[in-house]
Amino acid sequence: MSRIKKLQSKLQKMYIDAFLVTRGVNIEYLTGFSLPDGDGLLLVTQEQAVLITDQRYEIALKEFDSTEVIGLMTGDYYGSLNELCQRLEITVLGFEKSISYQVYDLLDEIMTADLVPFKGTVERMRQIKSQDEIKKLRQSATLMSQGYEYVLSFIHAGMTERAVANRLDFWMKEHGATQSSFPTIVASGSNAAKPHATFSDKIISDGDIVILDFGYYVNGYTADMTRTFAIGSINPELQDVYEIVNEARRQVIDHATSGIRGDQLDQFGRSLIEEAGYGDEFNHGMGHGVGLSFHELPATYGPATHDVKLQTNEVITVEPGIYIPELGGVRIEDDIVISHGKAEIITPASADLMIID
Prior knowledge:
Elements: H1 3-11, E1 18-21, H2 24-31, E2 41-45, E3 49-53, H3 58-63, E4 69-73, H4 77-87, E5 92-96, H5 101-110, E6 114-118, H6 121-127, H7 131-154, H8 161-174, E7 185-188, E8 209-214, E9 217-218, E10 221-222, E11 225-231, H9 236-255, H10 262-275, E12 287-289, E13 296-301, E14 315-318, E15 321-324, E16 328-331, E17 334-337, E18 344-345, E19 354-356
Parallel strand pairs: 1-5, 3-4, 5-6, 11-19
Antiparallel strand pairs: 1-2, 2-3, 7-8, 8-11, 9-10, 12-13, 14-17, 15-16, 17-18
Helix pairs in contact: 7-8, 9-10
C-alpha cells in the first residue's frame, strides 16, 4: 500500500472527509515531491490527492511521475483549497496542528468546511522506516563516518572550530551529501562542556577535547552522529569520563529491542553514569528518531518517557554524554535500527578514543 493510500485508509477512523498537509517534509514523504514549507499544500481525500502550488513548480510537476497526485497551479493556495473542498463536498477537514497561528487564522476565516486539528498524523507514519528508507539512512551514516575519518586526517592544534566545520562541510558535499540537517557542532576545550554549542572562532589547542556532532542528507535522509576525540593529550578525568560514556552507549545499544519502553532503555545507560557520580552532568535525553528530519518520532527518549515504546524498523540515536563546566565534555552518538533481536548499528565509525598528535 502506498503512503497516500495508508493515509486515506485512516480518514474514516479520524471522522474527517479529507486531510490537509502543510509541512513540506510530510508532503515529500507522502508524495515524493519536494516542496519547501510555505510553497504549497497537499489535500488528501478518500479518492484522490491534490498538490496545490504555483507556477514555479509547473515544469517539475509535469516531470513528476505519479499516478496518485494531481497538480493544481494557483497564486492563492488557501482560496483554491476552499473552492476545491466545496466542489468535492468536503464538510470536515483535518489539518496538521503544527501550522502557525497565522495560517490557522486564515483557514478559520475562509474555509466553509469544519476544521479539526490532528497532531503527528504523518509523523507517526514516518516513524517506522521501510527497507528503502533504512538503506538511505545507512548511506548517510556511512558517508558521515567517512567524513569523521577525514576530520581526523587534517585536524590539528591552531585550527579554529569554524575552519574544521567548513572543511567537513565541503568534503561531505563533494562526496554526495546535499546539505547539513543541522548546524555542525565542533566544540573544543571548555566549549565541549556545552551540549549544544555549534562552532566558533575559538582556536583548538593542544590538550583540548573536541566534540564533533553532525548530520547530512544523502538521498533525502539524514543520519546523526557524534564522536569525541582529543588533540595531543587528554585530561585524566576526561579519559575516565570517555570510558564511562562509551560503556553507557554500549549498554543502551545492547538492550535496544522492539517493545522496550524509552525510560527503561534510557536507564541502562543513565544508571551507569549516575553510579559513576556524573548524573547531574548528563542533562539531556538518551536519543531520538532520525529520518527525513534529524529529529523524528520518538522526539526523545529518557527518564520520563514511559509512553514511548520502541518498534521494529524505527531508527533512533543513542547519545549519552557527560559535560563538566570549565573542563570539557564527552558525547558519543550512534544510529541504530530497532528489531525483535539485537539492534543494528548503522554508524560504522570507531567509537574508540582517538588522540590526535
